[in-house]
Design goal:
heterodimer; A: 373 residues; alpha/beta; nine-stranded mixed beta sheet; five-stranded parallel beta sheet; 9 helices; 28 strands; 28% strand; globular; B: 428 residues; seven-stranded parallel beta sheet; 8 helices; 33 strands
Chain lengths: 373, 428
């Protein structure tokens, strides 16, 4: 594909509550074996994008560790590669990324040194499959300046944390509202854009001159009447994970056969870093119903309607229901967990009980000493 | 002018060309080292992981019999971090020469034919390994032992029960571990230290011995090279290994070694942090258990969907187990699909097999296998890779199925105990 990829992975999100204290949203574990950014990176790799930059800032260490080798997404090539760019102090600049446009501006050298005519600009917190070639075809066909990937949302869905758009019958975007309290349209922007590389350089430079830093507010919304901005409608599964409810919901979606089938059994695949963990093990007393279990887990108790991530240990007589247990959690014997998200590397004492009340999801972070065999 | 010489202290040569005929149809299409083991691994993963965990980063893998699966598994060695600029893993098949083109006729002959490969790394020591054992071993400790004793040859040995000793190459060693006697499969063994087929040679000693013995037909380490060194008084030492080591050469031992993995704390523990076993993982998603599934005392690989009931079994990656199907004491390898309402008892089902609905494997009275009772015994049902078993078939014990079968291949939808049904030809 004649495009480079840029993943804006620097953001924090208060809606993730305690979960984002440890890591950037893009590094959130998804569906047992993946991280959120794997979906975007795999889509880029499967669309034959070879050169990808990930711009990180907030709490990046977990993300950097995940991206420490580019080979899992097939970016480890002489022609191309996977670059992670964090803010740096230079002679001209000593600022953090002050916004998405500023993050791109501070890495203009990457854009300028590329040769591909197009840029695929995305966030890293979406769970979806998309062939960017199709979006580019649409972009060229409509002679668009910027193409925004959009999606219809259920009527009545809470759109407070999205950008909503209104398009005309030719799919040209006429109105763009960022995070409206009352949305006028139920079409949202998925935070995935295609535009010409030179166009992006020009716009971002202009922004910087005017001390503007945000891609959506200062480029998309500001230019919507002067530039041809089009919306490409995506119809397959897409979900943004950047709130506790959506994060929980996205993981639970993978308990549905059609979602698993779409992501796991249909070409192309989603790739992730390989962890070399042993197969999951079930001892006497284990009982697992309607749940996903990942490699390296040892299960001795009851698991129902839950997603268990890698390398977790579940003790005897435990009962885990409607919960998400993140990586490397140790759960002592006789412990009940219901409607919870248990943060990775937690150690839950034996004979304890954790439950989210009144339909709320409780986030459990337990830092106890761990005694393992 | 300075000539930069590549130098590696110790390189490994991994013998992976054997068929392993006692694994029956499991090795009909793949070499034994490429046979699946323990849910997600292949047998060769164990020696390869040992190499990288021991700091041996140059490994020649000698292949000959059915190498396709092995080659694609090894690739350029990424899973074992053996993709190196200098060294790394190299697959070494037999090749044509100006004179005397031949297959690898014996273990030592295979090494002899690759003297040039070894020479190019200017090693001090050469580690000879075989690709068909399950164990974790730090070869660096063995090398330290080799050096400390000023040995020229060190043979890894392990104690075996005296009554089984006549099946192995048996070493007699003095209290300083120096080998005083070596007997290949002795009738009246004088010791119970069996050779594990793992040798460290000083490169010069190996080089000399191979050149001297080059004309010996079917040149073998146990039969020829070790006796040759012994006769010439080369200092040979026995390195005693006491950890877990298993030769999975027969269907029974292969089945047992898999079953041992499901113990609460297995003797051979795959969950240890410090000595990981690496493999090529093509399938990454988690495994799914449906609402009415049951699982107990089992290990299960990535991406497997369980709708039925699994007890005491080792299940590979990407397997589907249908509704109301019961699997007990069985080994199911990668990508196999099993329909609904089946029963499987003590079955070994190879990769990419399709089993229909209402199929029973391993039921009925025990009967001796009609073709190869020395291979198919202990009541194990064996199904070769890519086989197809249609709906409603009942299969007895000690029986074998290999190939795409349809209902006309069975009499009254039945394959009685001890029967062999092989439909796959060379090119099917």
């Amino acid at each position: 594909m004649r495009a480079i990829g840029i993943v804006l992975a620097g953001g924090n999100n208060r809606r993730m509550k305690e979960l984002s204290q440890k890591r950037a949203v893009c590094a959130m574990p998804i569906a047992g074996s993946y991280r959120s950014i794997d979906f975007t990176l795999s889509n880029m790799s499967n669309s034959h994008i070879q050169r990808v930059a990930v711009l990180t800032q907030y709490n990046g260490s977990s993300l950097h560790e995940h991206l420490s080798s580019s080979k899992w997404w097939d970016f480890g090539r002489k022609q191309g590669g996977l670059y992670t760019f964090t803010p740096v102090v230079t002679a001209e600049n000593s600022n953090w990324y002050r916004g998405t446009a500023d993050a791109i501006y501070q890495n203009l050298a990457f854009l300028k040194s590329s040769h591909e005519p197009y840029v695929v600009l995305t966030s890293g917190d979406g769970v979806y499959k998309l062939d960017f070639n199709k979006v580019l075809e649409f972009h060229i066909e409509r002679k668009a300046d910027i193409t925004v990937v959009c999606r219809d949302m259920e009527p009545g869905a809470n759109l407070e944390r999205f950008g909503t758009v209104r398009m005309n019958e030719e799919s040209r975007i006429e109105e763009f509202e960022e995070k409206p309290l009352r949305a006028k349209s139920n079409v949202i922007s998925c935070g995935i854009y295609i535009l010409r590389r030179r166009q992006l350089i020009e716009m971002v430079e202009k922004c910087a001159e005017e001390d503007r830093y945000d891609f959506v507010r200062d480029i998309l919304i500001r230019y919507k009447d002067v530039k041809r901005i089009f919306g490409y409608k995506m119809r397959d599964y897409w979900r943004n994970i950047a709130s506790v409810e959506d994060y929980y919901g996205t993981n639970m979606d993978f308990l549905k056969g059609e979602v698993r089938n779409y992501f796991f059994k249909q070409y192309p695949d989603i790739y992730s870093r390989v962890d070399d963990l042993a197969p999951a093990k079930y001892n006497v007393g284990a009982s697992v119903r309607n749940s996903l279990i990942s490699s390296g887990c040892i299960v001795n108790g009851v698991v129902e309607n839950s997603v268990i991530f890698k390398k977790s240990y579940i003790g005897n007589n435990c009962v885990i229901k409607n919960s998400i247990i993140l990586n490397d959690v140790y759960i002592g014997d006789n412990t009940c967990i219901e409607n919870c998200i248990v943060e990775s590397r937690s150690t839950l004492r034996e004979n304890s009980c954790f439950a989210g009340e009144n339909g709320h999801i409780r986030i459990v972070v337990e830092r106890n000493e761990r005694y393992t065999m | 002018m300075v000539i930069v010489m590549v130098k590696k202290e110790m390189i490994a040569m991994l013998l992976a060309g054997g068929q392993g005929s006692r694994l029956g149809v499991l090795t009909a299409k793949v070499a034994k080292p490429a046979v699946a083991f323990g849910g997600k691994y292949r047998i060769i993963d164990f020696p390869l992981s040992n190499c990288i965990n021991s700091g041996v980063d140059t490994v020649g893998v000698l292949t000959q019999y059915q190498p396709l699966r092995l080659n694609s598994h090894i690739g350029i060695g990424i899973p074992w971090d053996l993709d190196r600029n200098i060294g790394g893993v190299t697959v070494l098949p037999p090749y044509e020469k100006i004179s005397s083109s031949e297959w690898y006729t014996g273990t030592a002959n295979a090494i002899y034919q690759n003297l040039e490969y070894m020479e190019s790394y200017h090693p001090e020591y050469v580690l000879i390994l075989s690709g068909d054992h399950i164990y974790k071993m730090d070869y660096e400790i063995m090398l330290d032992f080799h050096k400390a004793n000023n040995a020229e040859v060190t043979i890894a040995v392990m104690p075996v029960p005296m009554e089984e000793a006549s099946r192995f190459g048996i070493m007699t060693a003095d209290e300083r571990h120096r080998i005083s006697k070596f007997e290949e499969k002795p009738e009246h063994p004088q010791s119970n230290l069996a050779s594990m087929g793992i040798y460290i040679f000083n490169w010069k000693t190996l080089h000399k011995a191979l050149l001297a013995m080059a004309e010996q037909p079917a040149l073998d380490f146990g039969k020829h090279v070790i006796p040759y060194c012994h006769q010439r008084g080369v200092p040979m030492f026995a390195y005693e290994f006491t950890g877990y080591w298993k030769d999975v050469g027969t269907l029974q031992s292969y089945w047992e070694a898999n079953m041992e993995l499901i113990d609460i704390v297995p003797e051979f523990n795959l969950y240890e942090e410090y000595w990981k076993v690496y493999t090529k993982s093509e399938i990454q998603p988690p495994q799914y258990f449906a609402s009415d599934s049951v699982v107990e005392r089992s290990i299960i690989g990535e991406g497997t969907d369980v709708y039925g009931k699994v007890y005491n079994s080792v299940i590979g990656c990407g397997v589907t187990i249908g509704r109301d199907t019961v699997i007990r004491d069985s080994i199911i390898m990668n990508q196999t699909q099993i329909g609904s309402n089946c029963e499987l008892y003590k079955a070994i089902v190879a990769e990419e097999v399709r089993i229909g609905d209402h199929v029973a494997l391993g039921v009925g009275e025990e009967a001796e296998n009609d073709v190869a009772p020395h291979i198919y015994n202990h009541g194990i049902v064996t199904v070769g890779e890519k086989s197809v078993i249609p709906n409603g078939i009942r299969v007895g014990k000690n029986s074998v199925i290999f190939g795409v079968t349809t209902s006309v291949d069975y009499i009254c939808s039945c394959l009685p105990s001890g029967r062999t049904l092989i439909k796959a030809g060379e090119h099917q």
